[in-house]
Amino acid sequence: MSKLFSPIALRGLRLRNRIVVSPMLMYRAEGGHTNDWHVMNLGQFAAAGVGLVMMESTKVDPDGCSTLRDAAIWDDAYVPGLRRIVDHVHSLGTPIGVQLGHSGRKAGMVLPWEGRGVLDLDHTPNPAGGPWQLVGPSAIPHSDAYKTPHALSVAEIGAMIDTWVAAARRALAAGFDVIELHLAHGYLGHQFLSPHANRRGDGYGGSLQNRMRFALELAEAVRAVWPADRPLFARLSCVDGMGWTIEDSIALSRALAARGVDIVDCSTGGMAVRGENLRPGYGYQTPFAAAIRAQAGAATMAVGMIVNPRQAEAIIATGKADLVALGRELLHNPHWAYHAAQQLGVPDPESLLPPSYAYWLDKRGRQGLGDYPGVAADPVLS
Ligand SMILES: Cc1cc2nc3c(=O)[nH]c(=O)nc-3n(C[C@H](O)[C@H](O)[C@H](O)COP(=O)(O)O)c2cc1C
Question: Any idea where the NADH:flavin oxidoreductase/NADH oxidase N-terminal domain is (predicted)?
Fold first, then answer.
């Protein structure tokens, strides 16, 4: 019996298997508004058997956008577009979550395929059309290329948490099944956690407990408005090579779980250009998911170069994580879950597909060549 394809209950939500679409910015929104692209992109994964689709880092504030093409959830005007994505994915029998994000001092980048540089924020309005104000825990830029952020006052931190809470209410109005708090990759949540980015002398800086305060208040505040039957995830950079360690992540995960976070999504890095001390390889971040699961007592999601069905199966079967998230491999092959079910010998893999696909495929997932006696599966060999 495949563990990867065993269902899991997270509060009131049942996932048919452990395969999750990792949140991936598509840089396709216009003025924050999602469109047909997002419906098509997220729909294709839902139509091919994943357990949960996670929408890209969707921004709670225009100043928190990574690029001018980020998706927005900072105003009620964005809810109908998001609702359309949710309804489409639901119509395919698949739950969908949204990752809420704010890029903090690292906002305002050009699109990746336009050079990965930094926007000239003095002459570029934010995606809501206003002046672009970078914010962070301290007035320290991400790198020489970035502007110095405004250090949030205690009152502004309170307002920032309210901003995330308002976004969570909109996520509920749009019908999302899961919220993930983006506390990783060098963005605002991670900036508060990091001794590298956070040099505050008040209750939000200094000791580990103080640096965790923003993340914990945020989790508590969002949990309070997110229905008790819907799961809450948090993505961490479990290590960043710039002072944040796995021991810190274990302590944070324990505290997040105590505040009602159901899944710790275990990524790494992003705090500094050369901060990462990890060499990417297959499953390179999975040991962090395993450590947090074992030592913090939190359920975890492993992510990072998980590409092979047997690799994914082993991660779940050996108790390293409760879920696996796939990013680039799913871009490469949106039907990965269906193919994985076939390779792992899961009974009736076609049941993962809508009948419009399943009816026409034979047991190898190819067109129903069995219907034509004497036709070989491979045209070159026939
Ligand atoms: C195009 C692209 C966009 C991404 N956007 C996000 C994002 O919005 N939020 C996030 O937490 N990670 C983001 N990531 C990171 C992925 O979620 C994932 O953690 C990373 O790609 C490693 O997994 P993989 O090896 O399966 O791709 C992005 C990755 C890619 C390739």
Answer: 3-344
Residue nearest to atom 2 of ligand 1 (CA): 24
Nearest CA to ligand 1 atom 23: 304
**For residue 343, what are its two tokens?**
């390779």
| Parent domain of 298 | 8-347
Quickly tell me which residue has 């409760």 as its tokens: 322
Q: Is the CB of 303 under 6 A from ligand 1?
A: yes
Residue 379 lies in a domain: no
Phi, psi of 221 (to 5 degrees): -70, -40
Report the C-alpha gap between 132 and 108 in whole angstroms.
8
From 20, 21, 24, the mutation candidate for ligand 1 (largest count of ligand atoms within 8 A of CB) is 24
- 155 CA from centroid of ligand 1 (Å): 32
Using the atom order of ligand 1, give the atom closest to the CA of residue 307: 26
Pocket probe for ligand 1: among 19, 20, 21, 25, the residue whose CB has the most ligand atoms within 8 Å is 25
Q: What phi-psi label fits residue 175: left (phi over 0), alpha (psi between -120 and 50 degrees) or beta?
A: left
User: End-to-end alpha-carbon separation of the chain, Å?
Assistant: 36
How many domains is the chain built from? 1
**Would you say residue 165 lies in a domain?**
yes
Give me the chain's average pLDDT, please.
Answer: 94
CATH of the domain at 21: 3.20.20.70
Q: What tokens were used for 18? A: 């452990």
CA pair distance 102, 60, nearest whole angstrom? 6
Maximum CA extent, the chain: 78
Task: Report the separation in Å between the CA atom of 153 and the middle of ligand 1, taken as the mean of its atom positions.
Answer: 31
- Strands 13-15, 8-10: pairing is antiparallel
Per-residue pLDDT reduced to its tens digit, 237-267: 999 999 999 999 999 999 999 999 999 999 9
CB 89 within 8 A of CB 96: yes
Query: pLDDT (tens digit, 9 = 90+) per residue, 68-78?
Result: 999 999 999 99
